[in-house]
Amino acid sequence: MRRLFFICCSLFVAVGAHAQLTLDTCRQLAREHYPEVRRYDLIRLATEYTVSNARRAYLPQFVLSTQATWQTAVPSYPDVLTDLLTLQGIEMEGLSRDQYKIQLELSQTIWDGGKTRADRLAAEAEETEALRSVDVDLYALEGRVDELYFGILLLEERIAQMELTIELLRSSLEKVQALQRSGVAMQSDADAVEAELLSVGQQLDGVETVRESYRRMLSLFVGKELGDERLERPVELQLHTGEVNRPELALLDARQGTLAAREKLVRSSVMPRIGLFAQGYYGYPGLDFLESMVDRQWTWNALVGVRMSWNFGAYYTQRNSLNKLRNARQQLEVQRDVFLFNNRLQAAQESGEIARLRRALADDDRIVALRRSVREAAESKLRNGVIDTNDLLKTITEEDAAAAARSAREIELLKAIYELNHTIGQ
To answer: Distance between CA 301 and CA 15 in Å, rounded?
Structure first.
């Protein structure tokens, strides 16, 4: 029997633990459920395609072409030679003005001035920038989840406090009704307490409605229905005052890397290109013009060689292009300084708020204890007919307000600590 009891207790604890939902779990579920998270794989896949294309620049290139032309003039024999051959009975027609060619050309890059490597580096830098941009969006998503999470905790604390107040009012109503039956209190006293009880009940319904709305919004973020799962109150984190580690800074670093890669592309655009080539064609005339002048037959022809090309036009815009990149790099530095400045201001403000909440929370326990003592004394005075019901209701309201303020301040302190850590990226 005892063994069965322990098994039941263990199952109860396991079910209770399972029903708890933590802030870290909500953050992770929100990241996994958020549609933008799919961009990670898409960005990496696009980069693989781009890098693969860049690496294939050194693969042999084949070009098949056909050509048919008619020319106004073609090479011909000198008139003296033509007349001499005619006297000997030899007819030399010369080249035909109709010419035809079916050609296959093979080219192999030996050196492209570093363009292929620059293209690969640029693709990788753009991938890093895109990934860091997604990191920034998902980090902001975590902030939105935190707002909802702590908002729900605040509402649940308020609901718990209002339920205690309702129980207190019900107890007071029973006492007043007992006094009424004894002839010490009047019906109006009981009516006043009951009216306050109904008013607090209405307020409780309104707060519960708002809480359910918050829970529905949080369920949309995490991608599942929360059901009866309760949100676990996070532990108080240690405050960090070290270096800022926000994903926005990593994004700015990635953009600097993209600009550096683009600078390499600009520099490679002014370098010469060296490669091998081979051409083979079937057509008329062939490479041997003399034979084609004698015999107008299609022939096979081929040639191989080394080719160098150098586009000097790229020098016209190189300086301006590099200056634009340097200007963009300086703008990124300004953005970094502005972000760090605003971040320090926000962190200082949040640190001040944390200090204020700690000071206020230190007095809350004493305030609640004093309000409870005043309310208990008021109940005693009411039984003895020293005060009326309105005075008792006032003390109950003041105790409720003090307890609600303390409960809310605890959550607000946790929320402020998590906001500060989120601000500095810790």
So the answer is: 85
Fold of 60-111+273-309: Outer membrane efflux proteins (OEP) (2.20.200)
Rounded CA separation 195/169 (Å): 10
CB 276 within 8 A of CB 108: yes
Q: How far apart are CA 50 and CA 333, in angstroms?
A: 29
- Taking only the tens place, the pLDDT of each residue in 130-152 is 999 999 999 999 989 998 999 99
Q: Which residues contact 414 (CB under 8 A, 6 or more apart)?
A: 150, 153, 233, 234, 236
Distance of alpha carbon 255 from alpha carbon 129, whole angstroms: 6
Torsion sign (Cα): 285, 288, 294, 295: negative
Token pair in block for residue 351: 């640190």
Rounded to whole angstroms, the Cα distance separating 196 from 397 reads: 9
Instruction: Give me the CATH code for the 21-59+112-272+310-424 domain, please.
Output: 1.20.1600.10
Cβ-proximal residues to 353 (8 Å cutoff; 6+ apart), any chain = 416
Letter for the amino acid at 139?
Answer: Y
Higher pLDDT, 90 or 159: 159
Domains of the chain, by residue range, sit at 21-59+112-272+310-424, 60-111+273-309
